[in-house]
Design a protein that fits this description.
There is one protein chain. The protein is built from eleven helices and nine strands. By secondary structure, the protein is of the alpha+beta class. It has two domains: about 100 residues, Phosphorylase Kinase, domain 1; about 190 residues, Aminoglycoside 3'-phosphotransferase, Chain: A, domain 2 (Alpha-Beta Complex), CATH 3.90.1200.10.
């Protein structure tokens, strides 16, 4: 059973953000995996209420990048300026006075993820078009130089094998193939990558996308890296027909602004399969549902191997 939320730290945080406002309430948001996500509400002196979200990154993210909170805040500033539908960066607290770890405070987006299979026909084309817009965002790579490069991240991953491999999902073969192929020649120009673009990180209202959230895995690199990760996530959420339509719609929208070479997509598909392999068991407590996810994972990997050149 979860412990009741201690609202006092969020009341203190609210006073730092808006000293003249009145703290009203705080509540935990579900779905945070790598970060603790808490919403809180304040009332300003003019009577207007405002909902905010405090994001505290977990130990794994902080170990990977001690500056992750400041980097995410800076990235959100750039993305808002570029016109992307992201939460407004409101406040960055690195003082350690309230919380032991840095806190990013962003605006609350009134929307919800759509994960029902019935939503797929209208959702998938918009989902694909939004990913293409992210990859064409008007931020120079110099502006994004504080982000890691996807090639470097995967070079490090390929260099380190876990003691135990899940060969029921072909992990050994996937790793062998990627280790032999790396460094992968990049054909497409580098761009901004979300790093974890899946239906659960996209918020909708009245049938339209109103927010893309959770940017802590952002990087720069080949757009195919994001595309591959999204393909597997769409497959899990909506099935193979939706995955293929997502791929087609993404390629169409991307190519409307610049050429896209899909030659290396099978390798990036294998990267996505390897990245998401360890999280399958955590995605569901239903053995039947886990079996379905594992079966789709095997199909996805088989497609990738069949298309390698």
């Amino acid at each position: 059973m979860a412990l009741p939320l201690d609202e006092r730290p969020y009341a203190r945080l609210a006073r730092k953000i808006a000293p003249d406002a009145t703290f009203r309430r705080a509540w935990t948001l579900r779905g945070g995996v790598s970060a603790q996500v808490t919403a809180f509400e304040i009332a300003h002196a003019d009577g207007q209420t405002q909902k905010l979200i405090a994001r505290q990154h977990g130990a794994a993210d902080l170990a990977r990048n001690p500056n992750i909170a400041a980097d995410e805040f800076r990235l959100l500033q750039l993305l808002r300026a570029a016109g992307l539908p992201v939460a407004a960066p409101e406040y960055l607290d690195q003082s350690g006075e309230i919380f032991a770890t840095p806190v990013v405070v962003v605006g609350y987006i009134e929307g919800e993820p759509l994960l029902r299979l019935d939503d797929a026909p209208t959702l998938v084309p918009q989902l694909a078009a939004q990913l293409a817009r992210i990859h064409h965002v008007d931020c120079s790579l110099d502006d994004l130089s504080f982000l890691p490069t996807q090639n470097d991240l995967w070079a490090a991953k390929c260099a380190t094998r876990p003691a135990q491999l899940d060969n029921s999902l072909d992990e050994g073969r996937i790793r062998d193939t990627l280790e032999n192929a790396w460094p992968l020649a990049q054909i497409n120009p580098s761009c901004l990558l979300h790093g974890d673009y899946w239906p659960g990180n996209v918020l909708w209202r009245d049938g339209h996308i109103v927010g893309v959230i959770d940017w802590e895995d952002a990087a720069t690199g080949d757009p195919l890296a994001d595309l591959a990760n999204s393909r597997l996530e769409v497959l899990w959420a909506f099935g193979s027909d939706a995955m293929h339509r997502f791929t087609h719609e993404y390629a169409r929208h991307y190519a409307a602004a610049a050429p896209l070479d899909l030659t290396n997509l099978p390798y990036w598909d294998l990267c996505a399969a390897l990245r998401l392999l360890p999280v399958i068991a955590a995605m569901t407590s239903d053995p039947e549902d886990e079996g379905r996810l594992r079966a789709w994972h095997r199909e996805f990997t088989a497609w990738a191997f069949a298309r390698l050149r």
